[in-house]
Design a protein that fits this description.
392 residues; alpha/beta; TIM Barrel; 6-stranded parallel β-sheet; 4-stranded mixed β-sheet; 13 helices; 37% helix; 15% strand; globular; lyase; Galactonate dehydratase
Length: 392
C-alpha cells in the first residue's frame, strides 16, 4: 500500500479555522487527520505543499514510525508549531488508515483500552456577558448538557498584572460558576499564560476556596523557572504544555517537577504515537496527561483513542458542544458526552469520516484570534490590527 495523494480542506468559523487532511492510498483506503492552527493556517498549508511531495507521497501508511521520523529529521530544522502540526495531521490519518485496514479501532492498536469510559470537560461555553449572573446561567447549561467538569478563563484581557477591581471580578465569576455547578463537579481555571509569578500566585490563593482541580498555564510558557516558582507556592495542581511541540521540550518540566498535569496537543506535537511516548515518560514522574483539544471532531476522535489506551490520562477537553454547531457535523461518529463521560470510540480506524461538503459550506475565514483583546471570550470575529490588510 502506498500514499498517492493528500487533500487539504479548511473548515471555517468566526474564531478558528480547522484544517483537515485526507491521506489517500493506491488501494482505495483513505484516512483523516486534523489540526486547528492559531492564526497560522496559511503557513500550515504552505508547509504541507512542500512536505507532502518530499516525504509522504509513495510511502507505506502502515509504516508510521518511519514516516514520522523522515518528516521530523529530513527537513534538518527544529521542531516548531507549523511543521509538527503538519506531521501530526498526516500521522493521525495514517493511524486511521491502519485501523480501517485491520478493521480495529485505533485504541486497540495502541495497546487496548485501560478504561471503560473517558471523562470530559467543557470549554468554550462562556460566550456571554462577563458578569456573575451570565456566567452562572451559562455554567448551568453545561451541567444540564451532561458535563461534570468545565473550564474557564475569568481574567478578561489581563496580562502580567490585574487591577484590583479585575481581581475581584475574576473571583466573583469563579464563585458564580462554582455555585452553578455544585460542590462535586470539577472546576478548572485557565490562565492562558497571562501572569507574572506574583500575580499567578495571588490569584491562585484567592481562588482556593472554590477548589479548582488545576490552574493552567499560570505564566508564559517560555520560562520554566517562573512556572516552578508558582508550583512551589500554590496548593492547586499546575497544568501546562499545550504550546510545547516536541517531546524533548518536556524534559525540564519533569526534572523541575514544575507541573502536575501536562497538556500536549496531539495534533501539534507529532500525533498519537508521539503522545503515547510522552505519556509513558510522564508516568515515570507521576504526572497526569490531559490533552489540549481546541479542534473539531477528528481531533477529538484522536484524543479519545489516546485517552482510552493511556493509564495516566486524567480528563479530556471538548469545545464542540458549545461552539460552532456545524463543526460536529463535518465528521460525525464520535460518542456524545453522557453523565460527564464519553463512551469508548467505535472503529474501525478513528470512527469518524470528514464531509468536505460542510467545509465548502463554511470555508476558511480571514480571522485573527487574540486572547488579549477585550471580550475575546465571546469568540466572535475580531477586527485585524489597523493597517493589516492580510487579516481582512
Amino acid at each position: 500500500m502506498k500514499i498517492v495523494d493528500v487533500k487539504t480542506y479548511v473548515l471555517g468559523t468566526p474564531w478558528r479555522n480547522i484544517t483537515c487532511v485526507e491521506v489517500l492510498t493506491d488501494e482505495g483506503v483513505s484516512g483523516f487527520g486534523e489540526v486547528r492552527m492559531v492564526n497560522r493556517t496559511e503557513a500550515l498549508k504552505g508547509y504541507l505543499s512542500e512536505a507532502v511531495p518530499n516525504h509522504v507521497l509513495g510511502h507505506d501508511p502502515m509504516r508510521i514510525e518511519d514516516l514520522t521520523q523522515r518528516m521530523y529529521r529530513n527537513d534538518y530544522g527544529r521542531a516548531g508549531e507549523v511543521s509538527m502540526s503538519a506531521l501530526s495531521a498526516i500521522e493521525i490519518a495514517c493511524w486511521d488508515i491502519m485501523g480501517k485496514v485491520l478493521n480495529k479501532p485505533v485504541y486497540q492498536l495502541l495497546g487496548g483500552a485501560v478504561r471503560d469510559r473517558i471523562k470530559a470537560y467543557a470549554n468554550g461555553w462562556y460566550t456571554v456577558e462577563r458578569t456573575p449572573e451570565e456566567f452562572h446561567r451559562a455554567a448551568r447549561r453545561v451541567v444540564e448538557k451532561g458535563y461534570q467538569a468545565l473550564k474557564l478563563d475569568p481574567f478578561g484581557a489581563g496580562f502580567y498584572e490585574l487591577e484590583r477591581a479585575e481581581k475581584h471580578k475574576a473571583v466573583a465569576l469563579v464563585e458564580a460558576v462554582r455555585d452553578a455547578i455544585g460542590p462535586e463537579a470539577e472546576l478548572l481555571i485557565e490562565m492562558h499564560g497571562r501572569f507574572n509569578p506574583a500575580t499567578a500566585i495571588e490569584m491562585a490563593r484567592l481562588l482556593e476556596p472554590f477548589e479548582p482541580s488545576w490552574i493552567e498555564e499560570p505564566v508564559p510558557p517560555e520560562n520554566l523557572a517562573a512556572l516552578k516558582k508558582v508550583a512551589n507556592r500554590v496548593s492547586i495542581p499546575v497544568a501546562t504544555g499545550e504550546r510545547i511541540h516536541a517531546r524533548h521540550e518536556f524534559r525540564e518540566i519533569f526534572e523541575l517537577q514544575a507541573a502536575d498535569i501536562i497538556q500536549p496537543d496531539i495534533t501539534q506535537m507529532g500525533g498519537l504515537m508521539e503522545a503515547k511516548k510522552l505519556a509513558a515518560w510522564a508516568e515515570s514522574y507521576y504526572v497526569l496527561v490531559a490533552p489540549h483539544n481546541v479542534g473539531g471532531p477528528i481531533s477529538t476522535a484522536a484524543a479519545l483513542h489516546f485517552a482510552a489506551s493511556t493509564p495516566n490520562f486524567k480528563i479530556q477537553e471538548h469545545f464542540n458542544d458549545f461552539a460552532d454547531s456545524w463543526v460536529k457535523t463535518a465528521a460525525p461518529g464520535n460518542p456524545e458526552v453522557v453523565d460527564g463521560y464519553f463512551a469508548l470510540p467505535q472503529g474501525p480506524g478513528l470512527g469518524v469520516r470528514f464531509d468536505p461538503d460542510v467545509a465548502r459550506e463554511h470555508p476558511q475565514e480571514r480571522i485573527f484570534f487574540n486572547l488579549y483583546a477585550e471580550n475575546w471570550h465571546l469568540r466572535q470575529a475580531q477586527q485585524p490590527a489597523k493597517g493589516d490588510e492580510s487579516c481582512k
